[in-house]
Amino acid sequence: MLVCCVWMLGCGDSGENWPTEDPPDVAGRYNVVPGGTTGCDGDPTWITGWAEGPLEIVGDPEDLSFEFTGMVFYGSVSGDRSYDFGGTGSWGANDLSVYNEGIFTLEDDRWLLDGNFDVIVYDPEFSTEDCTITGPVKAYQISR
């Protein structure tokens, strides 16, 4: 029985994605690449219009600002490399409620943000006066 337990401990993940004791320092400049979106009459610009391109992450792991062009959201990263951020902003003449969660991984000594957006768009032109658009996103760290 003891041999089986020791064998099980020696197998599996190399530890690269195991929780760390302290949250990682993910601050830096990133390039954001949103994926395909669903919702809001199939209009991806409710996310790509403001999120695609430069992103700067500033602060300590427990108190980060995610600074997109024209919008800033607040969040944190945990010791297991999971993160979330959210808040409100405006795009065009419409208000948005933004939430994003995912995980950071290391690739070639650079951080990769891999997550999903949930954005509520408040627009009186929609039949329900608001809609929700969702979509995956990746952001590649370009400098620290």
What report would you give on this structure?
- This protein is mainly beta and 144 residues long.
- The chain has one domain (25-143): Lipocalin.
- Helix content is 10%, strand content 55%.
- The model is unreliable at 1-15 (pLDDT under 50).
TL;DR of this structure?
With 144 residues, this protein is mainly beta. The chain is built from 2 helices and 8 strands, in the order αβαβββββββ.
Which range best describes the helical content: under 10%, 10-25%, 25-40%, 40-55%, 55-70% or over 70%? 10-25%
**What's the CATH architecture name?**
Beta Barrel
CATH-defined fold name: Lipocalin
Strand order of the main beta sheet, please?
Answer: 1-2-3-4-5-6-7-8
Question: What structural class do the secondary elements suggest?
Answer: mainly beta
Largest sheet properties: 8 strands, antiparallel, barrel
User: What coarse outline follows from CA principal-axis ratios?
Assistant: elongated
Distance between the termini: 48 Å
Strand content: over 45%
Task: Report the uncertain regions.
Answer: 1-15
Overall strand count? 8
- Give the topology string: H per helix, E per strand: HEHEEEEEEE
**Assembly classification:** single chain
Cα Rg: 18 Å
Give the class-level CATH name.
Mainly Beta
